[in-house]
Protein: Glycosyltransferase involved in cell wall bisynthesis
Amino acid sequence: MIDCSVSIIIPAYNVEKYLKAALDSIKEQTELPDEVILIDDGSSDSTLAVAKAFALPVPYQVVSVENGGQGNARNLGVSLASSEYVYFFDSDDLLTKNFVSTIKDQIRYNQRPDIILFSGESFNDSEYQGNRCVDYSRGFSGVFSDRAQFLDKALSQGALFCSPCLYVSKIALWGPEGLEFGPNFLEDEALFYPVIFACSTYVVIDEVHFLRRNRDGSTMTMAPNAKHVNGALNCMETTLSLYSFKSLATRERWHIRKRLGSHCVVYIVTARRAGLPVRVGEVVSTIVKSRSVSLAVKALLYGLRADQSDTVRKISRAVKRVGGFASG
Structure:
């Protein structure tokens, strides 16, 4: 049996009510991780005190920094980690007891894949006033060495969940010379396709190991604002940058265009809900660079739905001006 190691990185900000339960779910694992690194992101409550008071039977670092956002906290955690694999865990959520043992078994028996993806469930905190309930089921299991085949299967199952709490990956993929989280809202969404395209071997297990807490005041449940809009715009820009990969297969480019279409819709809808203007130039530039018919159509439809006639006219002119669009 091949040995392997897993580090768990936890960014924490003002989660004094939830942090102990999250850490307990790590402590109660049937097979423990090799290290846990908690980054307190400038909390103004007793989060840091709770973290320091907790004891784990594995190497456990607690680092306090000025508030810089979840992405920066995760990047710092990566720089401190020493294991072969890394898992990003949110400080208000929970893990099933056999999470680490299952992940290590998949690493051992599948020749050290680049990434292991799994299912999750959401549950409502006792004080939660909303009605959000997301099913994070992958809907399939398998081992893939073909990126397009993996994406085809995941897309067909509606299972392209972007949260890093739903996958474990090789630490070699991360760092200043590799992948890093950005400072924007929706940084998980922006980074997901770069993660997938940095990998070449994928393991998917349709087993629930992550339990997401729905609670008031989290970034998952707050109303859209300018930060969400800028984050959605960054998702478009980051995904578009994948087009610079010269070795992309035709089907892989199709998936990028498909993802761009989704990001474009999210951006326009988020801007509208936040009461902010759509940056038409950015949308048009994305359409032109991707040369995608479906992206142009989606932008037009959602521009019309938003009753932004000037937006629609500008997008229409861009579509007419640029020929040779791809069909997807």
Q: What stands out?
A: The chain has two domains: 6-214, 226-321. The chain has a mean pLDDT of 88.
